[in-house]
Amino acid sequence: MELLPRNNGLPLYSQLAELLREKIVEGELAPGEKLPSETQLAEMYGVSRITTKQALNELAAQGLIYRLQGSGSYVSPKRLKRQLSQLGGFSEDMRRNGVFVRRKVLELNLSKPPKTVRSRLKLAEREMALVVRRLIIVDQEPIALFKSYLPEHLVRGLLLEDLEENGLYELLQNKLGLCLGWADQILEIGSATTEEAYLLSVSTGVPVFRTTRNTNLCDGTPIETAEAVFRGDRVEFHTRLEAAQGQGGL
């Protein structure tokens, strides 16, 4: 039995949650591994079942474990790393990490875009946009939703391409011969809507990452505006920050 300290000021469930979190982060509890039951944890650490239940609830809220009804609690798979410092597609990011990605096209059509999209793409009122909405799947598990708008007059050829087998940016560069220059991107935290939850196989209201990206060609021409939703329990974002010369710290 490994007793938790009773006089450090932290609730026992928080102490237990932190102890288990460290075991998960350090790999002592591996992805997919089943955790001891609430009763077993209570016996192992000398606490009540209510305390173990609260600790597991905290870990589940952090996305570190998941529960299967009638089976128990399991360590969640490792989060997928999404780079923020490079202009590239999600599939390219995953391939660099040795992860196989499958895409499912949910929407592919030409339409008159909303006013905000026309403004971002600098389209005239009657100009059309190609709408591409895709679900990204990793290891049979839905991970992210992408919805892109692209100027129809620049990307007509995409209608003839297989957008489930190929990455969007790969097609823009390799098939259409376009030079991708740079993008501005906003990252926010949000909650899954009912539709998003259904498509991503999560509960309505769970935390998600939302990104809005405006991509330009090398000559500055807008080529895409896209919104994406990532499961907060399966994706993490990475970037590298370099010190500015002559600047002080916080």
- Our count of helices gives 8
Categorize the overall geometry.
elongated
| CATH level 4 superfamily of the largest domain | Chorismate lyase-like
- How are helices and strands ordered from N to C? HHHEEEHEHEEHHEHEEE
CATH architecture annotation name of the largest domain: 3-Layer(aba) Sandwich
Mean pLDDT: 89
Number-wise, the strands total 10
Helical residues, percent: 25-40%
Structural class: alpha+beta
Which radius of gyration do the C-alpha atoms yield?
A: 22 Å
Strand content: 25-35%
Q: Please write the CATH class name of the largest domain.
A: Alpha Beta
CATH fold node name of the largest domain: Chorismate lyase
Low-confidence segments: none
Instruction: Report the biggest beta sheet as strand number plus sense, adding barrel if it closes.
Output: 6 strands, antiparallel
Distance between the termini: 44 Å
Side by side, the strands of the main sheet go 4-5-6-9-8-7
Structural account:
It contains eight helices and ten strands. With 250 residues, it is α+β, with helices and mostly antiparallel strands. The chain has two domains: 12-75, Orthogonal Bundle (Arc Repressor Mutant, subunit A), CATH 1.10.10.10; 80-238, 3-Layer(aba) Sandwich (Chorismate lyase), CATH 3.40.1410. The strands form three sheets. A six-stranded antiparallel β-sheet has the order 4-5-6-9-8-7. A hairpin with a 4-residue loop joins strand 8 (207-217) and strand 9 (222-231). The longest helix is centred in the N-terminal third of the chain and has 14 residues, at 12-25. The chain is elongated and about 70 Å long. The model has no long low-confidence stretch (mean pLDDT 89).
